[in-house]
Structure formats: structure tokens, C-alpha cells
Design brief:
290 residues; alpha/beta; 9 helices; globular
């Protein structure tokens, strides 16, 4: 039998941090109605934070807020807004101590076939959405000496074919966070980035997955996992709890990769260079984009 890699455990924040570290604090989370950010919100509320989750789909927000409140006994408000519209975000913002910015939109496309509308949409959601959220909440976060955690992507670290739109948008978010950290540090505000790697069973992973001839995910062959497994949403949630906690009181302006070391060893999301020489040759591997 060949040697097997050690598989890293999935550790919930409740196994490490005290249950009341966020008592009396409030989290605002854009995109908190589903996926990774919903799990992050659940983790924060499990440590006695109250929360407000923002998004466009009110039905999804209502269902998520009820579920989160029932699981934690904390208050969770569903607030409908479009992060691309500053007045919409402004109307939804209240006096929050912590802000989790995670506006995201993504799909696979080479730059040669990417429309201006597609590129602009991702920039508006990811970059402008983050900017609008910061502008709307900053007076409250300053007052409370709170902090920001911006959810980005590891694609900004190495050039990734078919990801020019999200790479540009998230690189801007990373830069925004770094400047926010040095401008607002003297006001008692911290700002950090959390960049997940591949995370299983998420909408994003499904949207970016490509299929090989055998129907299996192409990424299985190009994403080696140094810690023995794909990422879990609880990995990201525990990292967010750390960044918001007093344990990270001297951590600001940083980009924390939560990817199990994958970014150091991964290949492209699509067969390279075939995918850029002839995009039609891999058309069967890619889901229709949004």
C-alpha cells in the first residue's frame, strides 16, 4: 500500500474559542444568506454575536435568518439590498461593531470571449459592493472600534486562466482592505482579507467546476491538497472568528489564505494551454455562465 497523506481535521470555532467572546457585539454580513458567509455568520452567532445578513433574495434571507436564530438563540435580521447600489446599502446599515464583506460573482471565461457587461458586473458586485459596504458602515465601525473581514479569493496570488474578471475585482478588494487598515488603524479599526481556496459543496465551487471526458471534475486532477482534503466552510468560519476576535487585535492589513496550502501547488482551473488556444475545445466542460 502506498503512503497516504495525513488529513487535516475540520475544527469548529466552538472547540477553540470561548462561547461568549462576541457577547454584546453585532455582525453585518453581505451575502450571509447562503454558502460560506452563512456558515461564518453561524459561527459568529454561536459565540453570542447578533447579526444582520444582507442580500438581494429576501426569501432566502428570511429562511436563513430564522435558521441562524433558531440554532444559536441570537438575533438575526434579514435586510434586503443590492450592494451595487450605495443608497440601498446605506439604508440597510445600522450601528455594527463587525462587518463581513463578501459580495461575489464569478464564472469561467477567457478574456477573449468575456463581454464588457460580464466584466463590469463582477467589478460592480465584488469591488464596488465592498466599497459601498465600507462607506455605509465606517462611521459605526469607527465608533465601536470594530473591524472588517473581506472575503476574497486566492486567484489574485497567481495568474489564473478564465478568471481575469474575478482576479481584477478581488485584487481591488485586497488593495482596498490594505489601505483601509492603515487609514483607519489610528481610529481603532482593523481590516483584513480572508481568501478561501477550493471549498467543497458550495455554489462557487459548483459554478467553477469543469468536467472531464469521464464526467468527473477536472479539478480533482489539478488540485493537490497538501493537508489531505478539500476545504470546508467551517475552515473559513473558524478563520473569520479568529480575525474578528481579540486574539487578532494586532492583526490588520493582512490577507489570510484558508486553502490548506493548495495555492502553492495547484494548476489551472481548465486544461492549459488548450483552453486559451481553442476555447471551443473545452466548451463541453464548462457550465453556462450567469
Amino acid at each position: 500500500m502506498s503512503p497516504q497523506a495525513v488529513v487535516a481535521p475540520i475544527v469548529k470555532s466552538s472547540d477553540v474559542f470561548k462561547p461568549d467572546i462576541f457577547k454584546g457585539k453585532v455582525l453585518l454580513c453581505t451575502g450571509g444568506g447562503s454558502g460560506i458567509c452563512k456558515t461564518m455568520t453561524l459561527a459568529m452567532m454561536s459565540h453570542q454575536a447578533d447579526a444582520a445578513i444582507l442580500g438581494r433574495n429576501l426569501e432566502r434571507l428570511n429562511e436563513a435568518s430564522k435558521e441562524l436564530a433558531a440554532k444559536t438563540g441570537q438575533t438575526c435580521l434579514p435586510l434586503q439590498c443590492d450592494v451595487r447600489d450605495p443608497s440601498s446599502v446605506q439604508a440597510a446599515s445600522l450601528a455594527y461593531l463587525r462587518a463581513l464583506c463578501s459580495a461575489a460573482g464569478n464564472f469561467l471565461s477567457p478574456i477573449s470571449l468575456l463581454s464588457e457587461k460580464g466584466f463590469r458586473t463582477v467589478i460592480e458586485i465584488d469591488t464596488l459592493g465592498t466599497y459601498h459596504t465600507v462607506k455605509a458602515t465606517l462611521p459605526h465601525v469607527r465608533k465601536s472600534h470594530g473591524s472588517y473581514v473581506h472575503v476574497s479569493a486566492t486567484f489574485t496570488h497567481n495568474a489564473t486562466p478564465y478568471q481575469v474578471h474575478v482576479s481584477a475585482a478581488k485584487a481591488a478588494v485586497n488593495a482596498l482592505s490594505a489601505v483601509l487598515a492603515i487609514e483607519e488603524g489610528p481610529h481603532g479599526v482593523r481590516s483584513n482579507v480572508l481568501s478561501p481556496g477550493p471549498v467543497g459543496d458550495t455554489e462557487g465551487a459548483d459554478r467553477l467546476s469543469t468536467k472531464g471526458e469521464d464526467g468527473e471534475r477536472y479539478q480533482k486532477s489539478v488540485f493537490p491538497y497538501p493537508l489531505g482534503r478539500i476545504g470546508a466552510m467551517d475552515d473559513c468560519a473558524s478563520a473569520a472568528v479568529f480575525l474578528f476576535s481579540d486574539a487578532a487585535s494586532f492583526v490588520t492589513g493582512q490577507n489570510l489564505f484558508v486553502d490548506g496550502g493548495t495555492e502553492h501547488v495547484r494548476s489551472a482551473l481548465v486544461p492549459y494551454p488548450a483552453a486559451v488556444l481553442d476555447p471551443n475545445s473545452i466548451k463541453h466542460m464548462i457550465k453556462p455562465r450567469m
